[in-house]
Amino acid sequence: MKLKIIDFDRLWQDVLIVSWALFRVMIPTLIIVKIAQETGLVDILDFFFMPVTQFIGLPKELSIVLTTTMLTNPYAGLIILASTDILGGLSVAQSTILASFMLFTHALPVEVAISRQAGAKAYFIVVVRVGTAILYCFLLHQFFAYFDLFSGTAVITLPEFSSTSTLPIWAFNQVKGLVFIQIVIIVLLAALEILKKLQIERLINFVMRPFLTCIGIGESASTIVVVGLTLGLGFGGGLMIKDVKSGNVKQTDAIGALVLINLFHSVIEDTSLVMLLGPSLFYVLVCRLIFSLIIAYIVISLLKAIPDEVRQKLSVNMKCFTSDYAS
Q1: What whole-number distance in Å separates Cα of residue 180 and Cα of residue 85?
Q2: How far is CA 274 from the centre of its chain?
């Protein structure tokens, strides 16, 4: 009797569910952000965000880099940075703060929309991510200034970026990005199916169990957390959407997992990208992970300590959950 490693019928159904859940959120959001850029709304946001930029120790000229990254992605932020003239350049301390802020807050419209479909309220995720970014970067700024660390000029290594000034070029690039995401979804879900058949998924969950238990995330969301941390919120959130709608994840576990993977996700790709800015890897990766775990633990603990009605009102998109998984 042959062992069927992959159930292709089930795999195809999962691909359709995850792809539809992601693309119906991503495509309208990308269009709205593009309209905001073309109509000057991004410039207005940039003006209001300038005090925050200076509060965390960055030159005011970087406000547009931060707001662009928040509304789109780190790639777009680097494109803007490459064309921004900063007198005297950036210190390693400033590049570390900039890289950290970009990692905490990039692609908010898309990733917050995905998180909302996966069970969390949009404003809750925005407050957690932006608040954590500001707090972490402010503490870094104070720490670096007090001990006079990383005052040397950062070596910024940016490749040649071309600005997508025309609508056809922009649309073509978005389509390329969506095709790439579709390919990754198929590969990811096939790999997860194989892991399940080989029982490796259970081993991963077993290894992660103590770690997740410490910060208050239940077993039902452990695989999703692993995927989100390594491959990104888009994929972890997509799996969360599927599992939440099928009633496989408890409400508290879903919110806890979303808090953690919103604060710390896509470790390899995103970290490698911001290293082009010349920051300190220790503070961008290790310290940011520790800080994210502390914040996630605090947020999850507070949500569990308050009454269910208050918690649901503050953080939960109740439309995503069945009555059986309302807690």
Answers
A1: 32
A2: 14
Angle at 71 (CA atoms; ends 272, 76), nearest 5 degrees: 45
Structural contact between residues 260 and 217, judged by C-beta atoms closer than 8 angstroms: yes
DSSP 230-248: HH-HHHHHHHHHHHHHTT-
- Its pTM stands at 0.81
For the chain, state the CA radius of gyration: 20
In a 3-state reduction of DSSP, which class is residue 34?
helix
- Residues 117-130 have a mean pLDDT of 96
Q: What is the pLDDT of the chain when averaged over all its residues? A: 85
- Residues near 50 by Cβ (< 8 Å), separated by ≥ 6? 60, 63
Token pair recorded at residue 236: 């972890």
User: Are the C-beta atoms of 84 and 61 separated by less than 8 Å?
Assistant: yes
pLDDT tens, position by position, 42-62: 778 888 899 999 999 999 989
Q: Which two tokens stand for residue 4?
A: 């069927």
| Distance of alpha carbon 299 from alpha carbon 105, whole angstroms | 17
Per-residue pLDDT tens over the stretch 3-50: 466 778 888 888 888 788 778 777 887 788 778 878 888 778 888 899
